[in-house]
Fold this protein.
Amino acid sequence: MPELPEVEITLRKLRPALVGRSVSALDTSANSYFFVTPPNVLKRGVEGRRAVDLVRRGKYLVLLLDDGRRLLLHLGMTGQLFVAGEGSVELLPTTGRGTLKPSQQQRFSPDKHTHLVFRLTGDGGDVYFRDPRKFGKVQLLGPRQPCERLDKLGPDALGVTAEHLRAAARGRRGAVKGLLLNQAVLAGVGNIYADEALFLARIRPGRAAGRVTRAEHEALAQALRSVLQRSIETGGSSISDYVHPDGQRGSYQLGRMVYARAGEPCSQCGATIAHRTVAQRSSHYCPSCQR
Ligand SMILES: [Zn+2]
């Protein structure tokens, strides 16, 4: 499942391909739950418009159009947004069948899973949104139209501070991991990065959020920024098994410390990595390093 780093990498690849170009045509698949805005309304609203900017809000991408409208894009479980002739992010192997590797994206032509094709003016390839399981979303918003999906989001996880975490955790009895996954508290953290950051900060996922100390909040904020940043810099390779389009792994091989490593020895102390359900999510931690 695409998390913040994958969405950020997608943003960096797509922005130069989209911004400043106009949409001469928008091809869509048949109406389905993928479309929050129906395909015909979408086509009318987007065709002929120029893309002014592309930004990320948590795990959402927002394409700003020259008439002030915004196109909201969410990758869901298996969504892939990429430029024709180029490869973008490789998703986790667990994401399921039907997702394309970066090498397959490079020689791709639209198939039945391609829900949007942005035909663009000027130099460069068209842009595809492909999603075999259709948990992705597309929605066209007016300039000032409220959008619950965006409006409820907390500050972006890439810039999280200890003060923010501490304020959010105060008096909370629920698990600290649940707090990290709450998009209204912090936008962009998913299961993998929550587990990895909690390991680095030496905090058990199930600890009551309100019982995390000031020093631990410092360590946790630092750990979150660091795992996310490192994953972006290495093209996702450190955490999410991303392989670069040429098949090479990223140079920085941090690897997963705890996520999906239950039963294996902890790289720091040798204790067996444990696994339990916290905040309704599968969680991994070292019972010796984390308290
Ligand atoms: Zn350990």
Q: What stands out?
A: The beta strands are 23-28, 51-57, 60-65, 70-74, 80-83, 114-120, 127-130, 137-141, 274-278, 281-285. The longest helix spans residues 214-233. Confidence is low (pLDDT under 50) at residues 241-253.
